[in-house]
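WARN retry 2 of 3 for item q-0093 after timeout on previous attempt; input resubmitted unchanged.
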Amino acid sequence: MLDPSADETGLMHEHGVYGRGRMKRVMVAAFGPVADPNGGFGMAILRLGDEVDPQPFAAGDPAVKAEAGFAFEVDPMPKVVRPNES
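OK item q-0093 returned
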């Protein structure tokens, strides 16, 4: 994460373009890198209805499609608390 190769930098650019494109479609609420001391990773918060499968989102991501060691894990948030909501 701190010392990417030229190929990784290009792939991360494509990954960011993909995420921003999904933000415009209101699928992605937020995304970005997580600086975990045990190894950095990225995180995205998706806005999907209960009936919507997140796997197509993952499958379309250039970082996943490149098969360059990037993985996608889905963990649901059963409750989301936002400002001005109880």
